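User: Need the bound-state model for uracil:
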Amino acid sequence: METKTLEEIKRACEACEKCELCKTRTNVVFGTGNENARLMFIGEAPGQKEDESGIPFVGAAGKLLNKYLDAVGIAREDVYIANILKCRPPKNRDPLPAEEDMCIDYLRDQVLAIRPKVIVCLGRISAMRIIKPDFKITAEHGKWFDKNGYSVCAVYHPAALLRDPRKKDEMLADMIAIKARMDGEDA
Ligand code: URA
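Assistant: Bound-state model below.
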């Protein structure tokens, strides 16, 4: 199978009408960052600010993610950030399994184009799709899995940390381990 370029995948997303979310989107939120990133983050779906700007993780959750990147010495420009869904679900409801099924090939193509060393799922929904359907975020965040040669783990979704700041220490520890893995050390 031929690897598509990010530009080709983006064009396909922008023309996509596979599910109903195309009718309510303001912008497709394709993904942003370094096209040769060693580290790729995968969130769930765009929220309001992302739908308005076309850029993932620019709202309150994104600002908190930026703080963690800063704290562990990762530049946001060096990573790539995308979501399972490229269009915002109305009122930020959880993605429907059928929507994920229709959108997931775009993400698969993005991963193949970028070939990151490390993939980090942001939150339970992303982890259940990328790592395993019965993923338990409280018990398994920060744990490493091998998926087709990629080092994959999940961390709490930054929006969950905004709701429950008691999880912030665990998030910092996970982010430190992610930085070490990205740098090629064992953590
Ligand atoms: N939450 C997500 O999962 N993705 C975004 O892009 C923004 C908020």
